[in-house]
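If you are new to this repository, start here. Below is one unmodified record pulled from the training split, so you can see the exact layout before writing a loader.
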Amino acid sequence: MKKRLFIWLMLWAFHWTHAQGTPTALQETETKRAVENFFVQFGSKNPDQIAQCFSEQVDWYIFESTQFPWTGRRTQRSEIPKVFETLFSYFVDGHEKFELQDFLVDGDQAAVFAQLGRRFKNSGKDFSMLVALHFVVEKGLIKKFYLYEQTTVLEKAYKQ
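And here is the target side for that same chain:
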């Protein structure tokens, strides 16, 4: 009887904690790997490989600017390669800076805070800004990607 009660209590506790959304170590490992893989692929500058980090249906948002066509909302993985092709075409290769400040993981969510810098091709001007990225991962793929950047910093550096 005690053994049966113990098993029932363990099953109830397992069900209750997972029903409450308590993150598991496995879930957090999967989230961390997916986000790390995104940054590896981003570093390779291969738009098709970057897109493979995302689910087919994605909740994607980069703070909008009328000057920069890579900003705004996207909903399909198929839209992502064009975003990165466009993004990479605006900047001088070899003038990237990315300093990670924090990488937080909680279940299927991750937040990354960093200092980002680049040089625009058109103006030759460098910029540096703080960015925050919010990720949600499901089945090893990013299903939500929000990038918060200091758009005014970009716009000033872009002007010739």
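Two things worth knowing about this chain: The CA atoms of residues 109 and 136 lie 4 Å apart. The longest strand covers residues 126-138.
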